[in-house]
Design goal:
The chain has about 110 residues and is an alpha/beta fold. Helices cover about 45% and strands about 15% of the residues.
Length: about 110
């Protein structure tokens, strides 16, 4: 299965990428930094640079995918976690980026299941 994965370089993603690859899936994984992209590529995933808040870019990025897995987060450091503003980016990912991914997945009809 062709899987589009966000959050590939985070805590959950670092375990998910090799698990998907080991299971025989093709993985296209979002990465924001060249060094993270190099790690993904070395593991066998295809790094994808996309702004998850750009609906058009997300729609283009998921074309050809059969499943979309959204693991992207931005949990603030402990010193900022007690402030509502510290969670703004995380909340945007949960709301805006999720909406963009759902819209893109709906538009391009990824297949679910294996």
């Amino acid at each position: 299965m062709k899987v589009f994965l966000t959050g590939a370089t985070g805590v959950a993603g670092r375990a998910t990428v090799p698990a998907l690859l080991t299971a025989g899936h093709d993985v296209r994984a979002v990465s924001r930094r060249p060094e993270a992209s190099a790690v993904l590529e070395a593991a066998g995933a295809e790094p994808v640079a996309v702004d998850l808040f750009d609906a058009d870019a997300v729609a283009k990025a998921v074309v050809g995918s059969e499943a979309v897995v959204h693991l992207a987060t931005n949990v603030p450091e402990m010193s900022k976690a007690g402030r509502p503003k510290g969670w703004e980016q995380h909340n945007r990912l949960r709301v805006e980026a999720t909406a963009n991914l759902v819209a893109a997945g709906t538009r391009h009809r990824p297949r679910h299941g294996s």
